[in-house]
Amino acid sequence: MAALLPATVWAGHESPFYPSFYPQEIKIEALDPRAAAAGWPQARVHAYVGGPLFAAGAVPTDASAVVSLRSYVVLSFDATRGPYALGSISPKDRCAAADRVLRLLPRSGEDYVFHPYAITPYHADYLDQADLAAAALSRYSNTNVDPGAGSLRIRAIGPLPERLVGGKLTSAARDWDATLEEVDLESLGGGPALRHAPWIKQGWFLAHRLYTQGLVANTAGVWAEHAYRRLLTGDYRSDVDRINLERSFVTMLAGGCERVVVGYTLRREYFTADYSNGVEDVAFDSQAGLNSSIFPRAVKLKDFPWNGWLRVGIGTEPAAAWNPVDGFDDPFGRLLWRTLADPALLSEPYGGSWIANRGSIVAAGGSGPVKIPATAQMPEAGTGRLHPVGAGRRAQQKLRYSLVASAFHDGAAASVADLIYPYMFAYRWGEERRPGNGGHDPGVARSTSLLREWLAGFQVIGIETLTRDYGADIKFTYQVPVVDVYLNHRSSDPWTAAATVPPWSTIPWHVLVLMEEAVARGIGAFSSAEAQRRGIPWLDLVRDPALGARLAALVEEFRQQGYRPAILETMVTADEARERWTSLAAFYARYGHFLVTNGPYRLESWTPSSATLAVFRDLSYPLGVGSFDRYAVPLKGYIGKVEDRGDRLELQAEVERVVHAQRSYDIERGPLVAAAADTEEEDAPPQCRYIVVGPDGKVLRASVTAAGSDGRFVIELAHLGAPGLYTVAAALLVGGNTVDPQVRLTEHRIARADGRRPAAPRRRANSGATP
User: Fold this and answer.
1) Amino acid 771: pLDDT
2) Considering only CA atoms, which of 71, 6, 19 is closest in space to residue 618?
3) Whole domain around residue 84: which residue ranges?
């Protein structure tokens, strides 16, 4: 057992800090669900990504599940022919036809929820539109069905739509009026350019894809696209302005009923919680589930909490090439890359923003445009060569990044060149080919389009030193480059803005250059489409032996030359480049591949259907076991009694907390004050988020409030405005968890213009989660 533990020791002391995360080895294996289920008693896998796993039988008693959003269920009318086509029927009549169909469909099923609104409880912006979602659902509260609904010819695609249609509607193989189908969230990602967009977990962003993808037209048209563009670029005055824009945007998208949201489905992924063979601290993502960056950073084995061999099953074989530029574009590849790579920021697991990983950010320059220093740099389109921005330039937002550097898997120490070369790469390969430029790949152009649109300039401020002192002469020191980045657009959430163009790469510059030269010489192509067009292999840094041999020959050529591209010659000397190529050659000789990162795990071995990753416990790696423990068990808060005091609402609250019992835990729910007394997150107390909606349906206030000393939350309602009925939507968030919140809708009536409370107020408090 002792040999399995990290054994770094100074002056007779064991290290108090263990770099990287809990498992010492992670094996990802493509397994048919039946094989994984059959091997469950022998713990063939500790967790299974995808699903469903136990669809054919009972769920074992030691199997626990995490739940995430999987897909939408939608009804789409045929836009080109038939009585419901565009131009053949008014939007009002088409919506009425859709309404009749929805009244015939079941309200629930296994992992299916009837929810006729595009923003679901699994979107971070659900609270901002919860009243609209509740109103959409209330339209179907009665069971009266128009007998004419059955005359529509519905084509059902897939098992779930077929079950929902059942015998109530005509299912036709052709000449249909509308199609009922599932739209998987993965399909809405739209490739790397959108899959890595900072807004990918926001409901309004996915709604745009849902209402425009696969449809001939959407009658929302120009106005909806204008609103979409404003949301993308931060063209709003305040959070209230942004929320109203999002609400009206979704309403515009859905208004013509070319496509109608029926509901959503949930993904249920299982892990073994067995006392000895099980795992714990299974963090996941509200939309990606276990196929997320947070999962391998938090999970640990019960028998070997500091080490051990984690086995993960996944339902699909690896199909995409293993290259980090435009590969890993399948479920297996995404899970592999999310474990190997170490980005500056990570997607917030149970929210819609981003969290610090290797980078932290500070927003600077105030709320208006900021001046860009003339000495700030920008890559030149087509070549990637850096040049000064020049005088008189302004940006919409300025962010200062502090990035903790560490060694790469081949032993190379990170440098400023590694930090900023991705910027240069994006401009070199993302622009259309023209004489004298470095090349072009449409796949790279799409995946880097957001970076090139947002980046207005950057400046390396310097390199700071971070020292962690653990006492007893044990200190760890890290190099922290500091970079100012100037943006052409803005976001009211600086972390969302930061995720657009972080100055960071988990891949060293010399591996990027190796791939560039391989593409330029026709050895391979970055993207699948370009590989097919040129009739050459899709560049794979691992699994193509013939291609690996050609890459090895390139590395030797570059080692002898001390090669670095001309655009790096002012930052990297020939000797430094020669050292890099020498290290990479040694890495290839030892491991047989070129997939070098600075992440927490290194690719150790692979087969056609599996990959084995070994922990990278290099002392320069700044994150250690326990870094993401706070995400292991997402907890919820609940609003109890609501009292309307006329000028304010007073809310009583309960929260969940974890109660440990050896290797298992229970979640208990209790009053907020009692839970706060022994919480481990004193710096992150529960918060009440709320919006106030006026009589005209516009949001007037949006804010966050903390509990008072009595454990109550107060929502101020003074000076709201004109008399009328207002709606307050509130949710209690614990640890920032926005997943499937209990949203409390409370009506508040103002009877007189001075806003005083009427003698007999009318109010309705809807307890429980808003569907």
Assistant:
1) 34
2) 19
3) 69-265
DSSP 263: E
We report the CATH number of the domain holding residue 651 as 2.60.40
Q: Is 296 helix (H, G, I), strand (E, B) or coil?
A: helix
Euclidean distance between CA atoms 298 and 21, whole angstroms: 7
pLDDT at site 9: 39
The answer to whether 398 and 498 are in contact (CB under 8 A) is no
Residue 3: predicted pLDDT: 32
Confidence of residue 129 (pLDDT cuts 50, 70, 90): very high
Give one word for 39, left, alpha or beta, with left for phi > 0 and alpha for psi -120 to 50.
Answer: alpha
* Contacts of 745 by beta carbon, 8 Å cutoff, 6+ apart: 130, 131, 134, 727, 728, 729, 764, 765, 766, 770
Detail the DSSP E strand segments found in 50-188. 63-77, 108-109, 112-114, 153-157, 170-171, 178-184
Domain assignment of residue 145, yes or no: yes
pLDDT recorded at residue 769: 41
One domain for residues 653 and 583: no
For the entire predicted model, the pTM comes to 0.91
Q: To the nearest whole percent, how much of the chain has pLDDT over 90?
A: 68
C-alpha distance from residue 103 to each of 120, 141, 144, 145, 328 (Å): 19, 9, 8, 6, 42
Is there a contact between 179 and 75 (Cβ–Cβ < 8 Å)?
yes
User: Which of 553, 577, 598 is the last residue in one of the domains?
Assistant: 598
Output 318-321 pairs: Cβ under 8 A, ≥24 positions apart. 318/30, 318/608, 318/609, 318/611, 320/528, 320/538, 321/528, 321/538, 321/539, 321/540
DSSP secondary structure code for residue 605 in this structure: E
Report helix, strand or coil for 519: helix
When pLDDT is averaged across residues 38-59 and rounded to a whole number, the result is 87
Return d(Cα 397, Cα 370) in angstroms, integer.
Answer: 7
Which residue among 598, 625, 652 closes a domain?
598
Average pLDDT, the chain: 88
Six token digits for residue 390:
């020049």
117 lies in the same domain as 251: yes
* Residue 89 counted as domain residue: yes
CATH number for the domain including 78?
Answer: 3.10.105
What are 732's strand-pairing partners?
A: 688
Same domain, residue pair 363 and 472: yes
Q: How many domains does the chain have?
A: 3
687, part of any domain: yes
pLDDT digits over 730-770, tens only? Answer: 999 999 999 999 999 999 999 876 545 544 444 444 444 43
Please say if the pLDDT value at position 65 is more than 70. Answer: yes
Q: Where are the alpha helices (DSSP H) in 668-759?
A: 672-676
CB atoms within 10 A of CB 573: 13
Determine, yes or no, domain membership for 564: yes
Question: Among 442, 482, 488, 440, which residue's Cα sits nearest to residue 464?
Answer: 482
**Closest listed residue to residue 295, CA positions, set 320, 308, 312:** 312
